[in-house]
Amino acid sequence: MQLMQLMKRILLSFMSQNWRKFTLKQRSRKRFLSAFFALIFAIAFAFTLVLHSFLPSFIFNDQADQAIAQTSPQSQRKQSQSNSQRNQSPRNQQSKQSPSSSPKNAQLLPQPLIPPLPPVNPTIVNKKQEIRGVWLTSNDFTMFSDRKQLSEALQQLKQLNFNTIYPVVWNGGYVMYPSSVAQREGIQPFVYRGSEGQDIVADIIAQAHQHDLLVMPWFEFGFMAPPTSELALTHPNWLTQERNGDTTSITAAGEVAWLNPFHPEVQKFLTELVLEAVTNYDLDGIQFDDHTSLPKTFGYDRYTLSLYKQETKKDAPADVDDPAWVRWRANKLTAFMANLNKAVKQRKPNVIFSVSPNYYEFAYKQQLQDWLGWVRQNIVDELIVQVYRNDLDDFRSQVSRAEIVEVQNKISTGIGILSGLRNSNVPMSRVYSQVITAQERGLGISFFYYKSLWGYGPESVSDRQKDLKYLFRSPAPRLFARGSF
Q1: 3-state secondary structure 219-242
Q2: What stretches in the chain show pLDDT beneath 50?
Q3: What is the number of other CB atoms lying within 10 angstroms of the CB of residue 195?
Q4: Domain that holds residue 450
Q5: 255 DSSP β-pair partners
Q6: CA dist., res. 33 & res. 132, Å (int)
Q7: Percent of the chain at pLDDT above 90?
Q8: How far apart are CA 331 and CA 364, in angstroms?
Q9: Is residue 127 part of a domain?
Q10: Is the peptide bond before 449 cis (omega within 30 degrees of 0)?
Q11: What number of CA atoms fall less than 13 Å from residue 140's CA on the CB side?
Q12: Domain of 371: which CATH number?
């Protein structure tokens, strides 16, 4: 109102002054009218601006589109990714034709007149957020058991724009946290503690959350256990075997025995171990890798053979690759994972259920892991496929497979990249090219493992960190509602 009154006074003053000038100087009436209408146009334009500021923004299509986009965490992340692409150097400006990468370059299009979306429910987990993670393995124990070293490490990861860590909590038949389940089963005569006597897992979670990093404890060994562990020695009836009677196999972790994933007592044990962690810690998710499986040569123990005959009325085939025998065992493993997911979600609905298997053909045929079926049945919230390759063409072929494209359209999907081993350095050039290849396809990244990010490479620590910073030069926070359980 005050603005309108001011405009009115200006108009009257203008008219009065101009009329006197017109009378005294005998200016033409035409010139006066031109000035008068120019003033009317200016006032109308000013009034329009005032009116615009008071009307709801959704009346204007372009602004409504932007407001709606900004309410979505996915849109915020896509905008961040789009900004990072514009900042890429010429050497990384490559053609991005895959279906999974095209949304990154999409422009906001005009939308129908609709009101703004309501605030996002903070208890809903966004299932398609970018993964920038790293595994903390038993080789990193010195770091994460020392509070100061852990703090420095997590701060460095935050500065490099990582957003997720996967600390090991189940390795070698033992858990990294105080466990009443392990004590009850008589499998762990000790408790892991930090250098100051702290609960290691609780400390990792608390410090990581201070740096806005998601924490997903990693049940690395799954159904594996060293044959000399208390677990294997105390519960021999929980173990399975090959057709020739062998009870162990040689893996990257050395010689291991395999818990029978079809045995109800084994299922109960692992489920209770997982639920114990989910209940006792403010974790963001849990992860199971390629060891939550069974090599195809196993399953010839007395219990499994009896169960197979009971359900199929047939003896188990001698051929480990028999399609029906493979499918039956894979289905049993799927049923266990479905029940485990259900139990976890009943305890804490928003916990992210993550798996990190090998590529699908190998996982299913060699390890009985039908992870594509798990995703299709909504058992999995996050997938990281381990693709540890030296050759870039081989790597590119694996990350472009149809099943990965299918999954990434549904949930957060990433690629596990080897950044080095204690006795095997990986040059940063290889890491760099593989990360770029994955990012071009809209895929996230998780590195195996923390210490090798810059501890084992042929380059200096500062050079490797600079390259990682360039690869993750724009922040990509993962939104998650803690404290809502």
Answers
A1: ECCCCEECCCCHHHHHCHHHECCE
A2: 1, 3, 6, 8, 10-12, 14-28, 30, 32-33, 45, 48-125, 481, 483-485
A3: 13
A4: 132-471
A5: 250
A6: 67
A7: 71
A8: 11
A9: no
A10: yes
A11: 27
A12: 3.20.20.80
3-class secondary-structure state, position 448: strand
Q: What is the largest CA-CA distance in the chain?
A: 120
Residues 6+ apart with CB under 8 A from 41: none
Indicate whether 263 and 373 sit together in one domain.
yes
How many other CB atoms are found less than 10 A from the CB of residue 213? Answer: 23
At residue 457, the pLDDT reads 87
Q: How many helices (H) and strands (E) does the chain have?
A: 18, 14
**Any idea what the Cα angle at residue 271 is, between residues 306 and 445, rounded to 5°?**
110
DSSP, residue by residue, 176-228 = SS--HHHHHHT--SS----TTS--HHHHHHHHHHHTT-EE--EETTTTEE-TT
Does some domain include residue 121?
no
Residue 182: alpha-carbon gap to chain centroid: 29
8 A C-beta contact, residue 132 and residue 162: yes
Quote the tokens at residue 446. Answer: 């998780």
pLDDT at 418: 98
Q: Tell me: the pLDDT tens digits for 226-244?
A: 999 999 999 999 999 999 9
Q: For residue 97, give the 3-state DSSP assignment.
A: coil
Asked if residue 443 lies in contact with residue 243, where contact means CB atoms within 8 angstroms, the answer is no
- Specify whether the CB–CB gap between 80 and 161 falls below 8 A: no
Contact 67, 116 (CB under 8 A): yes
pTM over 0.85: no
Helices (H), 252-322: 264-280, 302-312
